[in-house]
Design brief:
alpha+beta, Arc Repressor Mutant, subunit A, about 65% helix
Length: about 110
């Protein structure tokens, strides 16, 4: 969410929800209540600010902006996720190598029979 706010500058919650799926770590759907709860928590932690947008037709809408603390938190998460991604890549390569070795050994054993 912080990444999207940095990318967009400012955004409404429903806009974030629509784009969040593209960057989600899972295929699970994102509940609107969880999204707004997270935005409120980020605001309490000084990572985002919000204000009411009363321009235009219809009801007022909350618009969210990333703060400098939010940018710092995003940078921290990018570092963490980069480390996790590298670790996962090493794991997948090692597991794949082991799996290929096991299949090669299995095929060699089958040929020797």
């Amino acid at each position: 969410m912080l990444f999207l706010l940095k990318k967009k500058g400012r955004s409404y919650g429903y806009e974030l929800a629509a784009e969040l799926r593209e960057y989600a770590l899972t295929d699970a759907s994102i509940e609107a209540a969880a999204l707004y709860k997270t935005l409120r928590q980020l605001e309490q932690n000084d990572c985002v600010t919000s204000e009411w947008d009363v321009t235009g037709k219809g009801p007022a809408k909350r618009v969210y902006c990333l703060t400098s603390r939010g940018e710092e938190h995003l940078a921290e998460w990018i570092t963490v996720l980069d480390h996790v991604a590298r670790s996962m890549t090493r794991f997948v390569r090692a597991a794949g190598k082991q799996e290929r070795a096991a299949k090669t050994a299995e095929m060699a054993l089958a040929r020797s029979r």
